[in-house]
Amino acid sequence: MSMFLDTAKIKVKAGNGGDGMVAFRREKYVPNGGPWGGDGGRGGNVIFVVDEGLRTLMDFRYNRHFKAQSGEKGMTKGMHGRGAEDLIVHVPQGTTVRDAETGKILTDLIENGQKFIVAHGGRGGRGNIRFATPKNPAPEISENGEPGQERELQLELKILADVGLVGFPSVGKSTLLSVITSAKPKIGAYHFTTIVPNLGMVRTQSGESFAVADLPGLIEGASQGVGLGTQFLRHIERTRVILHVIDMSASEGRNPYEDYLAINKELESYNLRLMERPQIIVANKMDMPDSAENLKTFKKKLAENYDEFDELPQIFPISSLTKQGLSILLDATAELLDKTPEFLLYDESEMEEEAYYGFDENAPAFDISRDDDAAWVLSGDKLEKLFVMTNFDREEAVMKFARQLRGMGVDEALRARGAKDGDLVRIGNFEFEFVD
User: Fold this and answer.
1) Residue 74 in contact with residue 20, Cβ under 8 Å?
2) CA separation for the pair 357, 212 (Å, rounded)
3) What is the pLDDT of residues 10-36, one digit of tens each?
4) CA 58 from chain center: how many Å?
5) Which of 165-179, 189-203, 217-231 is most confident?
6) Closest Cα partner for 365 from 352, 376, 379?
7) What is the pTM of this model?
């Protein structure tokens, strides 16, 4: 089984805020002691950090749940609870983080050490010292901590490489990578020897350097899931230059020009923007019989099918086995890289505008529906947040929550929908009677 993993689905849960405390001063010589309950501490965030030492998402194969610690509860003497430490999760360079529910991209992590908060910890609840007023100098009210953000994420690794090698199986991509870099890809005389992307660094004679990725061979229908193509085409997306390797000897009975057209069709079908990347045609296996004649035919057909004003792609005849023509190819690749800008993988419409999913201020504060047992059901982010943060062990806190509902217009809305005195009203698992 391959140890390369480039997709993963995980769940993250930030820490809840600590509950606020209800406490009072009780010193012997301090009359009329007032409130003294402190606030709860902040819950820990879940933070992704790029680690250049990681190459795959294998760490997420067996560990799919990440939960940060909650903040400490508030204490007496007005002391705050301690905030929880953030949970740091290391990811490889080139990891795209997507919200699994909405499909929106949260971030694209490409720089070593780059950080991104994928789940925000809840704030601590307020202690009763915060609720003291001249009318109520000794309140028995405190807040529960805010729940930490919880979400499901889809991770996708797109390896960082300047140059991508593409082509049919057994055209010599792995052999080429092995002779131009120190990489040691598996090489064999059968299809799909390469089943995972291989990465290597090239240094030209002039001192230029760039990263090259050898991808598993493509076949017709790869963009629709045939072979291994659709699984690894994503890794071409970050490359700036594509080296299109073609077996010019036609040793497997295929036509080199038809191979060239078929692979480009798969690249275009997978992602139209892949065709924006400049290509260099690598005519491999020129040490074999018939290669020179096939190259002449290839060039002729290529010229015939290009418009007069279109610039023909560069063609470099090489032999990976005898190392013929490699230095010229690498110099031309480095020169093309210098002229080619970075390609943005995502536009603004695909990116999440705001990473933190708090409740939407513009959304309705609550929603009313009817359950099967005729109970009225209240829902909505703002209302549910107030509910969760209410300490129902204290009568004053319950009365405060009732006033908040009335202020939001819940009573009037229920009355308008036909609610009568004694009707059952439900918020989550909490039930109470409607009083008209």
Assistant:
1) yes
2) 38
3) 999 999 999 999 999 888 877 678 899
4) 15
5) 165-179
6) 379
7) 0.81
